[in-house]
Amino acid sequence: MTVLDGQNLPIQGARVRLRSGACEIASELSDGQGRVTFNDLAPAHYEIQASKDGYDAVRAADLELASGAISPVDVSLVLSPVHKDSVEVHETVSPVDQSASAPANVPIQIAKDLPGRPATVSDVLPLVPGVARSPGGGLQLSGGGEHRSALIVNSADVTDPATGQFGLTVPIDAVQTLNFYQTPFLAEFGRFSAGVVSVETRRGGDKWKWDLNDPFPEFFIRSYQVRGLRTATPRLNVEGPLLPGKLFFSEGIEYQVRKTPVYTLPFPYNLKKQEGVNGFAQFDWIASQKQLVTATVHVAPQRLGNVNMDFFNPQSTAPDAATHNYTVTIADRLTIGGGLLENTLSGTQFDARVWGQGLQDLNIAPGGNTGNYFAQQNRRASRLGLSSVFSLAPARVLGTHNVRIGSYVAESAEHGQALERPVNILDSANQLIERTTFTGGQPFRVSDTEFALFGQDHWIVSPKLAFDLGLRAESQRVSETLRLAPRAGVVWSPFGSSATVVRAGAGVFYDRVPLNVYSFRQFPEQMVTMYDGAGHIVSGPFLYTNGLGEVSARPPFVFQELRAGNFSPRGATWSAQVEQQVSPSLKLRAGYMQNRSVGLIILNRIAPDPATGAGANLLSGAGQSRYHQFEATAKIRMKNDGQLFLSYVRSTARGDLNDFAGFLGSFPSPIIRPNQYSNLPTDLPNRFLAWGLIRLPMGFRIGPSIEYRNGFAYAVTNVLQDYAGLPYQSRFPHFLSVDSKFSKDFQVNPKYTVRLSLSSYNLTNHFNPEAVHSNIADPASGLFFGHRGRRFTADFDIVF
Question: What is the 3-state secondary structure (H, E, C) of 655-714?
Fold first, then answer.
């Protein structure tokens, strides 16, 4: 719904209520564009009520909502007491009011009822087509890592300035909407080449309420005996008015203790540990009928133990870490002269400390590693950013033009130090064949200033046709580049109704270069010596210095000096999509997208000079990647608010393997192999996903989650830990997991509800191994193992 005044201008901060009979079903405040969205409503007769200080409260309209219907409604409020009470309601179904960049939306309430019990935004994202979780635990979006995507919370960038990673994301209970833009052809989005994750958080309501979820811990039970705490994740949510009608508050906070077992290792020496707090608070102040101010605070300190532990990296070789993430934002939305001015000031800080569990050398052997993790880090990164966006009043010239112009400026900085201890490569007889020692890393300090300007026009030519046209200019002082990003999109309804919508677009996108790239020269440098297995030196020692590569060409739309480190990683993306509303209960969508990225930052090892014995580990902007995706999705609405989401993705992901993120992140790899262009580790040719919520008779409900896909690719290595042949051509067996959560609520009294649930995992007991012996010098080479069979979990919750 859109709330308008007598001049058809948007009204922000209006309270819109939906009632069914004597019950209030939902209540929301209109945003800066006067818009209010109510999702997942049951088919019924509703009464719409709208009110705002300075306007007459009115009963706006009656709405008959059919199953699966999308019913845009314009509601007009009248200033009091100048005019009499009057209301106008207009049905609008124009599909061209939508952008050519249609996001994938995840209904949060349904996702929370799935067996995986997601706790944060990162936990939910793998439900989206085109997003997968890598074997190492990181998110892969459109074939690229987190550092190639943007994470925006309430219009503020919250990625780590040092690494570009997401960090601990917002608690799921604080989220109102979660969208993933795989092809955002709007110029307002920048600093990415793979995709944009956009999160809008919940505002407080007119009445105080609170929820306490998962109040009881879970324990390890082995041989019918309790063997310690497994998880404790109590979540508290509070919201309500601090000043009725003026100031609203909401808070979502989770304390978590998680001990995740690695099933390829013996208990109790197989537990990855995580402990911390994840809290998000929001204040919304309606300053006037034309101004809304929102402030948020995100606090997420956590302690990690035995990170990345697996069969080949047992407990002693896994690092521990402590991270702290703090983000504060203040957003002001002000209506000026028929337009809307949005200013967002944000500050974020990431602290990270990583250390091993001892001072022994790390020993890498074909059958598994021993010793202690080799790298130690202590760093702090921060960013202070200001974005300003002005949405002009609609202009009617050859149609309707909705123009937005904006700017962004941010100052970021990082300081810290990295230290590394010796790494030994052993053969299958545990004889030393290569040893790497490190010079002491120097303290580093680097800063950067980013600027961006953009202008875009959503041009509605007719009720059937609209275009998105835009241009974005970005600059990073540390890379001394100015980048232009033109974009264009079209949305077309060929048959004069909203049943069929065609979208297409193309654009240029640029990654932000994280600060760790420019700290690399102060990282420890390697000294490599080769041995013959009997303890005799065969060659070396060779010193590999750290450096930044030269830029040899000026690409189109990029203005820069040809100097070392002037990187401009970028991607050119185009897509086409058809969406069809088959019936009120069924919507289908099919689309194809292609991303070709160049200038990606990779780490290359330069062979040592025979005369001096000096080589180099060089960061260069010569990396490339290609990602193609065909997607087919279906959304099915059922009776009693049930929904099912089905998707099939056919994709290919290829590129240079030595992406800098594997060597400059919080947990760097100890092995630098020669770079190759091949399948990427997360290449998934085929992936089918089905999930949702089905309501059953007598108040029972079931949340199914089914995934079938190709197994992940893995690299075969030799005794020297180099690639044996072309990497990532071999795969794990096909993966199939049929999971479900069966639950029912029992009302104890008007305040308390007991929720009983039974979650099942891998119901078909399909062989889904977690590990493979991938080194050809390992006697068990080629053996898959670590299967987790059918299992069940019973939950008992109290809902207040």
Answer: EECCECHHHHCCCCCCCCCCCCEEECCCCCCEEEEEEEEEECHHHEEEEEEEEEECCCEE
Report how far residue 506's alpha carbon sits from residue 574's, in angstroms, rounded to the nearest whole number. 4
Alpha-carbon dihedral 432, 438, 439, 442, rounded to 10 degrees: -170
Cβ neighbours of residue 317 closer than 8 Å, sequence gap 6 or more? 309, 362, 369, 370, 371, 372, 373
The answer to whether residues 556 and 568 touch, using CB atoms and an 8 Å cutoff, is no
Distance CA 682, CA 359 (A): 33
**Would you call the peptide bond into 103 cis, given omega within 30 degrees of 0 as the criterion?**
no
ω before 301 within 30° of 0 (cis)? no
What is this structure's pTM? 0.86
Residue type (1 letter), 793 = T
Residue with tokens 């009464």, as numbered in its chain: 47
Element (H, E) at 122: helix 121-124
Q: Are 148 and 511 in contact (CB under 8 A)?
A: yes
Cα–Cα distances in angstroms (integers) from residue 789 to residues 170, 273, 623, 714, 769, in the given order: 31, 22, 40, 22, 10
Integer Cα distance of 46 and 633 in angstroms: 30
DSSP symbols for 264-294:
TS-TTTTEEEEEEEEEEEEEEEEEETTEEEE
Burial 694-716 (b: 16+ CB within 10 A, else e): beeeeeebbbbbbbbbebbbbbb
Q: Which residues pair with 603 in a beta bridge?
A: 619
> Residues 6 or more apart from 21 whose CB is under 8 A from it?
none
- Residue whose entry in the numeric block shows the structure tokens 């479900």: 740
By the 10 Å C-beta count (0-12 exposed, 13-18 middle, 19+ buried), 386 is classed as middle
Count the neighbouring beta carbons within 10 Å of the beta carbon of residue 748. 11
- Residue 422, SS3? coil
Q: Which residue has the tokens 């602290």?
A: 351
- Asked whether the bond before 268 is cis by omega within 30 degrees of 0, the reply is yes
Distance from C-alpha of 170 to C-alpha of 251, rounded to nearest angstrom: 11
Query: How far, in Å, CA of 669 to CA of 451, rounded?
Result: 33
Phi, psi of 455 (to 5 degrees): -145, 135
Distance CA 325, CA 348 (A): 7
- Please state, in angstroms and rounded to a whole number, the distance separating the CA atoms of residues 750 and 746: 11
Q: Is 286 exposed, middle or buried (0-12, 13-18, 19+ CB in 10 A)?
A: buried
Show the DSSP H helices in 568-664 as ranges: 661-664
CA distances from 501 to 102, 112, 274, 629, 658 (A): 11, 30, 45, 20, 40
CA-wise closest residue to 406 among 239, 186, 194, 718: 186
Instruction: Read off the amino acid at residue 301.
Output: P
Which two tokens mark 510? 């640029």
Task: Encode pLDDT of 715-730 as tens digits.
Answer: 999 999 999 999 999 9
pLDDT tens figures, 360-381: 999 999 999 999 999 999 999 9
| 3-state SS assignment for residue 732 | coil
pLDDT in tens, 401-452: 999 999 999 999 999 999 999 999 999 999 999 999 999 889 999 999 999 9
Q: How far apart are alpha carbons 555 and 571 in whole angstroms?
A: 12
